Amino acid sequence: MDLATRIAAGQGGFVLFALTPPRQSTPAERLPEIARATVERLDHLDLDGLILYDIDDESSRNPAERPFPFSPTVDPSTYRAEHFGSWRTPVIVYRAVGKYQPEGLRTWIAEQDPRSTLTVMVGAASSGATPPLSLADAQALRAEANPDLLLGGVAIPERHRRRENEHLRLIAKQEAGCRFFVTQVVYDVNAAKNLVSDYRYACEERGTAPVPIVFTFSVCGSMKTLEFLRWLGVDVPRWIENDLRHATNPLRASLEQSAATAAELVEFCRRLDVPFGLNVESVSIRREEIEASVELAARLGAQLRVSPDAR
Amino acid sequence: MDLATRIAAGQGGFVLFALTPPRQSTPAERLPEIARATVERLDHLDLDGLILYDIDDESSRNPAERPFPFSPTVDPSTYRAEHFGSWRTPVIVYRAVGKYQPEGLRTWIAEQDPRSTLTVMVGAASSGATPPLSLADAQALRAEANPDLLLGGVAIPERHRRRENEHLRLIAKQEAGCRFFVTQVVYDVNAAKNLVSDYRYACEERGTAPVPIVFTFSVCGSMKTLEFLRWLGVDVPRWIENDLRHATNPLRASLEQSAATAAELVEFCRRLDVPFGLNVESVSIRREEIEASVELAARLGAQLRVSPDAR
Fold first, then answer.
1. CA distance A15 to chain B (A)
2. What residues of B are in contact with residue A201 (Cβ under 8 Å)?
3. Neighboring chain B residues of A264 at a CB cutoff of 8 Å
4. From B258, which residue of chain A is nearest by alpha-carbon distance?
5. Does A264 sit within 8 Å of B260, measured CB to CB?
6. A158, A233 contact by CB (below 8 A)
7. Which of A214, A245, A299, B240 is geometrically suited to a Cys-Cys bond with A182, CB 3.0 to 4.6 A?
8. Interface residue of B160, B196, B199, B238 to substitute, partner A, most A CBs within 10 Å
């Protein structure tokens, strides 16, 4: 069953891989080869779909200096249309809604084929900014302009640990049309289990079926990657930082930890009967980190297929 | 190699089981049968040793109402001497040092056979109280009165998450004579890994060899047990609370989670070359929780023996 059909049916059991498109400053003639290298790396993985992120300058969210300077990236929908023609499974295209004018976003939504495209809408980074389009407006546009286009939302276990209401935010997003959720990178297995558990029982209370939660994992093999993940709001544990300073193979350790966390979440979601997907985010441009991401995705895929009773 | 020899050599790879002696209010004639039932339950586990806790009224530490009323328990050393004659491996007897007069504690220390007894000294619960004997005084007594008696200290990963200096406290305790550490119950695998990692690299910096860290696990199968663990300072995750309210077999889920956490810590310690032991604490008087504790200890023991390259 393909990704869109599964999600439309409220079912999980899929594996995704998430990429950020190249920077806009990349010479145009290099884009085809970058995309081709990506497709070659991912082709044998039998992925159920890709995620393409839409990067906004989030400096308004975080007063700390950005570890990598912000550099606008190629629009994910354009990148996909121009360079991923050979890709065979659906693509989840992110939309940082604060970047768009209502008419432009409406046109984009209306043009998408819901069998091959899904979208995740992300609100503006800071509540201080007043973007032309709020997340609620954008969600309403989707319902109006292309109701079959499957909509997802973001889920942040760390926020649940601090505020304990992320499960209610998920339910509100579900009422606004979300049919799946994608987490930010998970390192804290208990924070993720707490969110899943609270969400599941809140759904039960309301007589609502839980929708698939896609857990995102990443490897972290360099201090730059660690700093970037932390800047994004991920609680990367201190032992990983120590590993990076001292251990002979921190990348391998991070890969093993992500696989162990995923295994625990898979077992937990199955027990609680919450549909789920697994996603590997490639956050680095270093070759060895990219290759470790691909290996992680292969392992997660093998794990799901060994016991394919996932909802 | 027996427990005392291993610890004296700075080696881990052992499995323990921890008990709190019965309440003093227990009719004296029932103590032999309680102890016999315990020995029968544990005998087949091939444990490397037992831990017997010394309970102090910790109400001074925590202003919240105690979920179980405090009730003094039988002295662990007396309980062991009178009822564990048939037990064949060493016993780690806790000493809540705030309860004792210097002379009484010195006598007890001097009388112990270091081949069959080890001790963990615990400081007074609240810094507000002024006990007759401080932890430092008690540690000095041990060094003086029976320097071969192996001394351990407590390690609290949750405290490390809040204050980030628990590894330095361990090193200070080590300088005061501690040859091993026992954690409180671990649910947060990242907090435990952070502590191990910080401790290991701080040892390296000082040219000190790390001593065995004994990780404690428990099952939690009832709201009473959950409340008690939280009162003791353990961060029991919210998903376990939800399980207890809703799931058909929360005790089983808690057992699986403890086993998964242990497996991850075993792998981590081996990679970092930090010696470790595993301990299962039975915190409940409910039969099914006790039996699940025994099962957990059996599984942890089997796991260590399958790959006995543990230091």
1. 23
2. 242, 245-246
3. 257, 260
4. A264
5. yes
6. yes
7. A214
8. B238
Among the CATH numbers 3.20.20.220, 1.10.10.10, 3.40.830.10, 3.30.1490.150, which is that of A3-305?
A: 3.20.20.220
Q: Do A190 and B260 touch (CB under 8 A)?
A: no
Beta-carbon contacts of B226 under 8 Å, excluding residues fewer than 6 positions away, are B220, B236, B240, B241, B244
CA distance B167 to B153: 12
Side-chain half-sphere of B37: how many Cα atoms within 13 Å?
Answer: 11
Q: Taking CB atoms and an 8 Å limit, are A242 and B198 in contact across chains?
A: yes
Alpha-carbon span B93 to B174, nearest angstrom: 18
- Check A257 against B271: CB less than 8 A apart: no
Looking at CA atoms only, how far is residue B92 from chain A in angstroms? 30
Distance in angstroms (rounded) separating the CA atoms of residues B105 and B100 = 6
A37-43: list long-range contacts, CB under 8 Å, 24+ apart: A39/A84, A39/A86, A39/A87, A41/A290, A41/A291, A41/A294, A42/A17, A42/A294, A42/A297
pLDDT band, residue B283 (cuts 50/70/90): confident
Residue ranges of chain A with per-residue pLDDT less than 70: 58-65, 125-129, 307-311
Pick A239's closest partner by Cβ from B188, B197, B245: B197
Q: Please tell me the distance in Å from A195's CA to the nearest CA on chain B.
A: 8
A112: closest CA among A86, A76, A137, A136?
A: A76
Res. B49: pLDDT tops 50: yes
| A260 contacts in chain B (CB < 8 Å) | 260, 263-264
CB of A240 closer than 8 Å to CB of A226: yes
In this prediction, residue B310 carries a pLDDT of 45
The whole-angstrom distance between B146's CA and the closest CA on chain A is 37
C-alpha span between B281 and B295 (Å, rounded):
12
Q: Using one digit for the tens of pLDDT, what is the confidence trace for A275-306?
A: 999 999 998 889 999 999 999 999 999 988 87
* Residue of B197, B203, B258, B270 to mutate, testing the A interface (most A Cβ within 10 Å of its Cβ): B197
Report the mean per-residue pLDDT for chain B. Answer: 92
DSSP element (H, E) containing B49: strand B49-52
pLDDT at B286 over 70: yes
**Predicted TM-score of the model (pTM):** 0.91
pLDDT of residue B311: 42
CA B289/CA B285 separation, integer angstroms = 7
Q: Please give the pLDDT value at position A58.
A: 66
Q: What are phi and psi of B192, to 5 degrees?
A: -65, -40
